[in-house]
Amino acid sequence: MNQTKPSIAWGASRSEADLAQDKTVLREQLLAVRKALTGDIRDAACRAIGQHLLNWQTGSKVATLAVYWPIRGEPDLTDAYWQLAQRGVQLALPVVSGPATPLTFAAWAPGQAMMTDAFGVPIPTDLSRLLVPDAIAIPCVGISAQRYRLGYGGGMYDRTLALLPAVQTIGIAFDCARSNFAAAAHDVRLQSLITESGIEADH
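Above: the chain's sequence. Below: its structure in token form.
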């Protein structure tokens, strides 16, 4: 797949307000590029990312993994979720409690009943079992060479990861999400990245 590299570049000396504005522009560009991935190209990329996630789990041996339900053109890894569940991995989905609160993670298995929350995101119907996962697979709108993530701008994962320093973090993205932007003070560097090209991780 051809990689799209947005031409916008940012310097670390820019103010937080300027960085936020720059990221708003970049976010819109990257979402448009991601939305343009269709048909066989998207399907092949999702299959490759899913297989890399399975390979990552084989090596990591994590017992509980927080995943995500794909929205807004995010890589669809639901086939891989079934395989992870068959391996005995306990999956969980993120639950948003409010616009400025950390995420919680509800235990979930493929095939269980789902509902849509107030933000339009599918979540498990049963929210009675919350857990702290061993690792979190985090969808990325953009990802820098240093493995800082650009999300949707709400800061929910940033707030969550700040409270869970021991949890492993895996960014999930298409290669076209690779971009160049300066990290803000609150950004958390991801330990691993999975795209259709493979797995990048700290050693």
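The helical segments are 16-36, 39-60, 78-86, 156-163.
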